[in-house]
Amino acid sequence: MTDQDSRYDIETDSVMFDAAEKFDVNAIGAAQTPWWNRTLCAVNGAWVRLGVMEGDFHWHKHDDTDEFFLVMEGHLDIELEGRMVSLQPGQAFTVPKGVMHCPHARGRSVVLMVEQAGVVPTGS
Predict the structure, then answer these.
(1) In a domain, 37, yes or no
(2) For residues 30 and 42, is the Cβ–Cβ distance under 8 A?
(3) In the chain, which residues have pLDDT < 70?
(4) From CA 27, how far away is CA 44, in angstroms rounded?
(5) Is residue 124 a part of any domain in this protein?
(6) Torsion of CA 100, 106, 107, 109, to 10 degrees
(7) How far apart are CA 75 and CA 97, in angstroms?
(8) Domain interval for residue 59
(9) For residue 101, what are the β-bridge partners?
(10) Can you spell out the DSSP letters for 51-94?
């Protein structure tokens, strides 16, 4: 686990669900408090992660992998250098590899993310 801030409850050491195992993403998200982030499952060399966020993360980048965000609940702004992308439930955005970004959850937000397996969620 990489933890740059003690408020982040980010775990990368295990996958919660195996292939062919059913799980309820909404129920998992509803049961968590911010800043919870876990790998739900692995799909073809990628991790599907769920984050429960509130407030500002920090500026970071992922040198070798894109990062996909799908807002399931709440409102997420992703600040990029010179640009802000605002996402509501059902909206998604991919941050290209190597691009500095700073997620801002406007209130409690539940976000599904897809990243290359092994990524450090707090950045390179």
Answers:
(1) yes
(2) no
(3) 1-6, 120-124
(4) 24
(5) no
(6) -50
(7) 23
(8) 9-116
(9) 60, 80
(10) EEEEEE---B--TT--EEEEEEES-EEEEETTEEEEE-TT-EEE
